[in-house]
Design brief:
Blueprint lengths: L9 H11 L2 H10 L4 E2 H8 L3 H13 L3 E6 L2 E6 L2 H18 L3
C-alpha cells in the first residue's frame, strides 16, 4: 500500500512515478481520485478498450497505487491512498499551469 514516499527506496520510487508517467494510467488515476469505479466505468471515462484498461490497472495495482474488490461479477478499483495521490496530481497540475503545458 502506498502510504507516501517514506520508506521507499529509489527503485520503488522510480516504479511508482513510471506508473504515473503514462497518459492512460494518469487518466485512470485521476478518475479514481473521484472515487471507486468498476472497470466498465473507467473504460467509459478514459475511452479505451477494457483489455487496455485492465492492463493499465494491473500495473497501477502492482505499484500499490490502486487496489480492487469484487462486486458481484465486476472488479471495482480505488486508490490505496487517495489523499497522497490527489496531492501529487495537484502538484502536477499546478506545474503544468505554471509552465503553460496543460
Amino acid at each position: 500500500m502506498v502510504a507516501g514516499m517514506r520508506g521507499m527506496d529509489y527503485k520503488e520510487m522510480s516504479g511508482f512515478f513510471k506508473a504515473l508517467g503514462n497518459v492512460t494510467r494518469l487518466k485512470i488515476v485521476k478518475e479514481l481520485a473521484e472515487g471507486e469505479k468498476c472497470v466498465g466505468a473507467v473504460e467509459d471515462c478514459v475511452h479505451a478498450s477494457q483489455a487496455n484498461i485492465s492492463q493499465h490497472l494491473m500495473i497501477l495495482k502492482e505499484q500499490g497505487i490502486v487496489d480492487c474488490r469484487k462486486k458481484k461479477n465486476m472488479r471495482c478499483y480505488y486508490l490505496n491512498n487517495p489523499e497522497f495521490i490527489k496531492n501529487i496530481l495537484n502538484l502536477m497540475e499546478d506545474e503544468a499551469h505554471r509552465s503553460g503545458t496543460d
